[in-house]
Write a structure and sequence with these properties.
alpha+beta; Kinesin; elongated
């Protein structure tokens, strides 16, 4: 169908940075996170639709928005406007669709990045027509790129398959034996015994594509005379490396694949009037497309939860293209006819979910056997060095573990000390309560046996003969009373008055102990006991001994 001019291709390469990518000689770059490129192509009304006089209810109002304009008030559709990365009117050519809706993604393959282009839509909406043109334009641009970069050596390989009634078949082989899908830890899902042809030139590829078209299952339905009854996947793999490094120890290659996926169209049995084999084909097609829609819907909401890739062969093969290591472009085709309103709306809802799916494409670099052996030898030497000389990180880990042990030990000691403190405070409260009870008991006995209590106290004169003795002061150090003398009889009182002087008798007065006095004395005692415990270990036995000494 033609090739892109040299100046136009050069401008595109410079804008996309593929000139630099083609000269990479080593490890691949980091992944590029982006959303799937989604565009919608509105086909013209078919001859049958025009003959039936059907109006076109869908219209592209600009390059990114398509709206529903219906004169049927009983069938409102909400929303009535949909926006995408690109919208193509019915008069747009396939070349325009390729330039704006697929080229940027498809040609990522020459820089070592996987890419996938696929068409989605109802039957007879123009999917196969669109994908045929996009495939030819892409391959033509790839060969033009190869011609302009003679400093690199390129190897192109081609493979093709179809999924018919949930069975995978090789389109480059006449053998109809179903192919198995296998899981590879590095490559992902691979197709066992799939034929892969090394291309000689562009004409060779055209011949192989013609073979695939002849092998593909096609059938006639009421909606389409040449309806595709299977999903077709064409895979073009490109390996490139710098010529100056070919055969050398440090040589490496960029390896990537571009997939051209032409999905079978969804259809309603009531509209297609399918029976027998066509009905069975339609059931398998709809089931696989339903699984694809479920995967797209779940991916559009994030990667939380289970993604049912394995529910169909189609989604299992397309898994790298759906949120994986590939750049992806989806072209949704639809009919503007009023009779296909529901199918067109479902297509737009699928496209709305697909544009929210995020992929993470990376440059794929493959080293030669010699370069790989050399790399592994360096890695082995590094690991042996780490074993011979323990890394600093290991020492830090040991120190951290030791510090954690010390912290746990100190926390345990703090907990024990707090328990001892609480126990000592509890014992102190109990002892103070016992002291108060004993003082009350003594006061009761004294009041029942003696009419009064005589308490001498210190006079202001420091030479006074009434100053209390050291022994008395040591027994009970109260601020209001220095010594309590209990006189059991009048005889004892008179004897004391004879031995003392007249001045002494004048200084002595009879004082009855009141509740306030007992409380003041008790508080003084608790203050003295508490102050004596400051700076000492909170041992309950020590507190008990001190209190007993004060009481005796």
């Amino acid at each position: 169908m033609g090739t892109v001019g040299g100046e136009e291709l050069a401008r595109w390469e410079k804008a996309e940075g593929f000139e630099a990518a083609a000269g990479v000689e080593g490890g691949g770059g980091g992944g590029k996170t982006e959303k799937i490129l989604v565009s919608v192509r509105l086909r013209p009304l078919s001859e049958k639709e025009v003959a039936r006089g059907e109006p076109a209810d869908w219209e592209c109002i600009n390059d990114t928005t398509i709206i529903f304009r219906s004169s049927l008030p009983e069938r409102p559709l909400l929303p009535s406007a949909y926006s995408f990365d690109r919208v193509f009117r019915s008069d747009c050519t396939t070349k325009e669709v390729y330039e704006w809706g697929a080229k940027e993604v498809a040609l990522s393959v020459v820089s070592g990045i996987n890419s996938s282009i696929f068409a989605y839509g109802q039957t007879s909406s123009g999917k196969t027509y669109t994908m045929t043109g996009i495939t030819e334009y892409t391959v033509a641009d790839i060969y033009e790129y190869i011609r302009r970069h003679e400093e690199r050596a390129f190897v192109l390989k081609f493979a093709a398959m179809e999924i018919y009634n949930e069975v995978v078949k090789d389109l480059l082989s006449t053998d109809d034996t179903p192919l198995r899908l296998l899981d590879d830890p590095e490559k992902g899902t691979i197709i066992e015994k799939l034929t892969e042809e090394t291309l000689r030139d562009w004409n060779h590829l055209k011949e192989l594509i013609s073979v695939c078209e002849a092998q593909r299952k096609v059938g006639e339905t009421l909606l389409n005379e040449n309806s595709s009854r299977s999903h077709q996947i064409l895979r073009l793999t490109i390996e490139s490396s710098a010529r100056e490094f070919l055969g050398k120890d440090n040589s490496s290659a960029l390896v990537a694949s571009v997939n051209f996926i032409d999905l079978a169209g969804s259809e309603r049995a009531s509209q297609a009037l399918s029976v027998g084999a066509r009905l069975k084909e339609g059931c398998h097609i709809n089931r696989s497309l339903l699984t694809l829609g479920t995967v797209i819907r779940k991916l559009s909401k994030g990667r939380n939860g289970h993604i049912p890739y394995r529910d169909s062969k189609l989604t299992r093969i397309l898994q790298p293209s759906l949120g994986g290591n590939a750049r992806t472009a989806i072209i949704c085709t639809m009919s503007p006819a009023r009779s296909h309103i529901e199918q067109s709306r479902n297509t737009l809802l699928f496209a709305s979910c697909a544009k929210e799916v995020v992929t993470n494409a990376q440059v794929n670099v493959v080293m030669s056997d010699k370069a790989l052996v050399k790399h592994l030898q360096r890695e082995l030497a590094r690991l042996e060095s780490e074993l011979r000389y323990p890394a600093t990180s290991l020492n830090i880990e040991v120190l951290l573990k030791a510090k954690d042990g010390q912290i746990r030990k100190l926390e345990k000691e703090i907990k024990e000390l707090m328990q001892q403190r609480d126990l000592a405070e509890s014992r102190l409260e109990d002892l103070l309560r016992v002291v108060g009870d004993e003082r009350a008991s003594r006061r009761w006995e004294a009041s029942s046996q003696t009419p009064g209590l005589f308490i001498p106290y210190a006079c202001g004169d420091e030479h006074s003969t009434t100053r209390p003795s050291k022994v008395a002061a040591g027994r009970l150090n109260c601020p209001a009373y220095t010594e309590v003398l209990l006189h059991k009889s009048e005889k004892d009182i008179s004897r004391n008055s004879i031995e003392g002087s007249e001045d002494f008798c004048k200084e002595v007065r009879c004082v009855e102990i009141t509740e306030a006095g007992i409380s003041e004395c008790s508080n003084s005692l608790s203050t003295e006991v508490g102050s004596s415990l400051v700076g000492q270990s909170m041992n309950p036995k020590t507190i008990e001994q001190k209190l007993k000494g004060r009481l005796t």
